[in-house]
Specification:
The chain is mainly alpha-helical and 146 residues long. The protein contains six helices and no strands. The relative contact order is 0.19.
Length: 146
């Protein structure tokens, strides 16, 4: 892995963990659309980190989603349920950001936080399992505060 790949992977993992924190804050403050947005981005950043590690790139969110299904779900590296979660967050982030009068119910979306945390943790673990060259200073999922 090149230094550039290493830096990109580390940065995107940091963003994933940071964005989960942001999601939690948004939910606590009643900002459910922003909560869903941040959950999606946490998962997006983690998948983007894995893609960088594997020399895969997409300039579009739909491309990242397609690569995740093609490379991770199809081969059983992550579960079908995790692929469905990513799709749900992708679609709902689109609705919350671009469709008028959409407001998510906090009780309905709150459980998605734990699902997104598990998704990011899975991708994080996969990255560390695949590449032992990532420095010890790189973010570990344990840095997420419950």
């Amino acid at each position: 892995m090149t230094t550039s790949q290493n830096d990109i992977t580390k940065y995107r993992l940091e963003r994933a963990i940071e964005t989960l924190e942001e999601a939690k804050t948004m939910l606590q403050n009643g900002h459910t659309n922003a909560f869903v947005n941040r959950l999606y981005y946490a998962c997006f950043y983690s998948v983007s980190a894995w893609l960088a590690l594997n020399d895969l790139v997409s300039s579009k969110h739909s491309g990242v989603r397609a690569l995740m299904h093609q490379k991770l779900v199809k081969h059983g590296i992550i579960s079908i349920e995790q692929g469905i979660l990513y799709d749900r967050l992708f679609n709902n982030r689109q609705k919350g950001d671009y469709v008028d009068f959409v407001h998510f119910n906090a009780e309905e979306v709150a459980p998605w936080l734990d699902e997104a945390k598990m998704f990011v943790e899975t991708i994080n673990s996969l990255i560390y399992w695949e590449d032992r060259d990532i420095p010890d200073s790189a973010p570990r999922f344990a840095q997420f505060k419950d």
